[in-house]
Amino acid sequence: MAALPRRIIKETQRLMQEPVPGISAVPDDTNARYFHVIVTGPEDSPFEGGLFKLELFLPEDYPMSAPKVRFITKIYHPNIDRLGRICLDILKDKWSPALQIRTVLLSIQALLSAPNPDDPLANDVAELWKVNESEAIRNAKEWTRRYAMDN
Amino acid sequence: MSFWFNLVKDVFLRMLQLLSFSRRKISNSLSIYIKTNTGSTLSVELDPKWDIKNLKEIVAPQMGIAPEDIKIIFAGKELHNSIIIEECDLGQQSILHAVRTPHKIVNKTRNTDLIEESISETSDLNDSSGSKPMNETLMDLSLDESNLENLSLKEQQENRAHFYVYCSAPCKNVTAGKLRVKCARCGSGAVTVDRDPQCWPDVLQPRRITVNCESDFCPVTSSMHKDETESQVSYAHFYFKCAKHPSLGENDEAVPLYLVKPNLRNIPCLACTDIRETVLVFPCEAGHVTCLDCFREYCTVRLHERRFEFDEEYYTLPCPAGCPNSYIREVHHFHLLGVEQYERYQRFSTEEHVLRAGGILCPRPDCGMGIIPPSIEDDRECRRIQCIGGCGYVFCRICLQGYHVGECESQMSDASTSVFSSNYYSVDPLKANQATWDEASKKTIQTSTKPCPKCRTPTERDGGCMHMVCTRAGCGYHWCWVCQTEWTRDCMGNHWFG
């Protein structure tokens, strides 16, 4: 494997030394480009109290290409599909090498605080979120309790 | 043997020649040309340790005047006597200009009356003291017109200008560059600038800095005594030379890569965060900085994805942080990518320009000739396109398959064989189909892509949601992978993730 770019080393060091509150990102023992990420559900959101596992991978041409991020823990969220894929513009065409792992994870955390059913929606989840928000929030809380706690 | 003899003789003669000019010994000679304002050129060998006074002593006898009557001009500055040659960033075969100082010469008779007139009138704009060479005084140029105010001497030293250029021949590379100046009117280098350029617009835009042209052949100089109107002012024309190879004459110029700068302020690269010696500063308001390695990588990735964009007629890239108004307008900067990638850049750029002008690229593999067909008036007539000047292929404008009569077939399956339908030999059409050169890639493209509903570019979906954004330059259409129409709220609600 090619040597790890200094930027990745630096970012990793900084993530370890000054972790973002509510987010932990640890590189895999065997692959420094693969991160095990845990995001805590933000307060005052249906995901409060949950610990959400994600995987984050830095592709070969990072930081020119966006990191690939996916939820591993099941989550009831209008902007995340059942395979954990996130439709976030900064992970696609709005990616810029000026962004970092840190900023990506913060954006994902912010997405949990502010589900956006009016813009990009995920089929049934989004539908319900729009039609009956209280029920959708109940579902989200239930899924959080069931999949994102005590693990 | 005779070769060696000649060589030794040559060297010996040259030594003699030089010794006759001066009693000094030349340790490390620099061969340069001196152009006089009368149009003649002298070739001289110099010791870099000499000063300008020594140079004048050498030139004076050849010009037939006293050394103190000579003014030496280089890169827009008159050089004063105490300047050491090696401080002037002269290269081998550089050209210096020697002109007569005006006040001493008024009474001398010359053959051309033109000269007398010019000389008597150039007055005291430059007193004989001269100044330091441009490379000593010039500050690092800012991209805009903001001023570098009151820098200390140390800061001035540190801010000494460095230039990078693309040398198209013979170096074919990005090299260090040297700023030079000539008269915008007559092209002579015998000019002194009225002030140093302070920012890039001073250098790149015409008519910003005035010069005093000392050439006898300049229309301005010769007519100055008659009519000193505004229109008679001479302006500086700045240009660059490659510092890596000996000058190949006055027309040996190089393109300045003005976004490339020495990293005097130790700014970390936006992408890799390293602090590197040389950086590229994007023309956005923030002036975002990338190191040259990251710049190359940024461009290469965007080139792979064919995601360069049009900024007016420039096929280029913006600042990687996505800033507004940050496009690179001097596309020679992409020479930083190296020969191979630059050629690719040029090809893509040409193709995109053809497509943007309503043109078509010949669909034949390994051809790709750009064709600008007449506008569609009679649909039937204009559908037949022949690749003239290229491979000669005749194809249908709409489906880009071999030309056919009647409706286009929706899929390309048989099209490749129908071109050659008048085959003499009878071939099993099934086998012939399998044996075509690019059948496999056609199949792959056919099965793995869908065309953008707007520009028909075959598009691959490699994960993510159904919301597609066409990345072809100038298209940018938002469409739905499932419906193959414009992306709508219904698509979001029904099958955003499939």
UniProtKB/TrEMBL annotation, chain A:
Q: Is Nucleotide-binding tagged as a keyword?
A: yes
Q: Specify the UBC core domain's residue ranges.
A: 3-149
Which PROSITE patterns does the entry mention?
A: UBC_1, UBC_2
Assigned keywords, A-Z: ATP-binding, Nucleotide-binding, Transferase, Ubl conjugation pathway
Q: Name one GO molecular function term.
A: transferase activity
Q: Which CDD domains does the record associate with it? A: UBCc_UBE2N
Xref: Pfam families = UQ_con
What SUPFAM superfamilies does the database record attribute to this sequence?
UBC-like
Q: Name one GO cellular component term.
A: UBC13-MMS2 complex
Under InterPro entries, the record lists: Ub_conjugating_enzyme, UBC, UBQ-conjugating_AS, UBQ-conjugating_enzyme/RWD
Q: Name the residues annotated as catalytic in the UniProt entry.
A: 87 (glycyl thioester intermediate)
- Biological process annotations from GO: protein ubiquitination
Family named by the database record = Belongs to the ubiquitin-conjugating enzyme family.
Q: What is this protein called in UniProt?
A: UBC core domain-containing protein
- Species source reads Heterotrigona itama
UniProtKB/TrEMBL annotation, chain B:
A single Gene Ontology CC annotation of this entry is: mitochondrion
Which EC main class describes this enzyme?
transferase
Which pathway? Protein modification; protein ubiquitination
What highest taxon heads this organism's lineage?
Eukaryota
- Give the enzyme's EC designation: 2.3.2.31
Q: Does the keyword Metal-binding apply?
A: yes
Q: Gene3D superfamilies attached here?
A: 1.20.120.1750, 2.20.25.20, Phosphatidylinositol 3-kinase Catalytic Subunit, Chain A, domain 1, Zinc/RING finger domain, C3HC4 (zinc finger)
Q: Which reaction is recorded as catalysed by this protein?
A: [E2 ubiquitin-conjugating enzyme]-S-ubiquitinyl-L-cysteine + [acceptor protein]-L-lysine = [E2 ubiquitin-conjugating enzyme]-L-cysteine + [acceptor protein]-N(6)-ubiquitinyl-L-lysine
Identify the residues that the record assigns to the RING-type domain, covering every copy: 265-498
PROSITE patterns in the record: TRIAD, UBIQUITIN_2
Q: InterPro entries from the xrefs?
A: BRcat_RBR_parkin, E3_UB_ligase_RBR, IBR_dom, Parkin, Parkin-like_IBR, Parkin_Znf-RING, Rcat_RBR_parkin, RING-HC_RBR_parkin
Q: Any idea which residues are catalytic in this one? A: 465
Which SUPFAM superfamilies does this chain map to?
A: RING/U-box (SSF57850), Ubiquitin-like (SSF54236)
A Pfam family that this protein carries is ubiquitin
Q: What is this protein called?
A: E3 ubiquitin-protein ligase parkin
From what organism does this protein derive? Camponotus floridanus (Florida carpenter ant)
